[in-house]
Amino acid sequence: MTILSLSMLAVALHTAAIEEKCPWPESGPQQQRYHQQLSCYDQQLVTARRQLAQWQQHHQFVLQQHSQRTGRPAALNSFQAATESFQQLKEQHCRWQYQLQLPDVQLGAAYYKRCQLQLILQRAEQLESLAAR
């Protein structure tokens, strides 16, 4: 299985998990359904961001220890750069999905938050699997 195939599979699994936790409300006025959906995404984002932060802190700590032991900070510096790049990628990747839905701002916000959630969950899973090695 190629890296692209694995990445697409991970996105599909995260999408299914997000849809299970935050299904689109079936009834009620559209404004209320948007509000419920966005509220659910916000709750999920808080948890996902916390999980990602924990794994980032774990790797930061491990790499700092390695840097102090060996005197070689290259891995730590690369990890920090990768973390910053991920933040930029996440913002830009999700922004175009938001903009595509305009002028429907609420639908755009739902796409944006769902995109953020997918990427954060995928990154946290990657960092967790690296820690298990």
TrEMBL record:
| Alphabetical list of Gene3D superfamilies matching this protein | 1.20.1270.180
Q: Which domain of life is it from?
A: Bacteria
Q: What protein is this chain from?
A: Lysozyme inhibitor LprI N-terminal domain-containing protein
Q: Which taxonomic lineage does the organism of this UniProt entry have?
A: Bacteria, Pseudomonadati, Pseudomonadota, Gammaproteobacteria, Alkalimonas
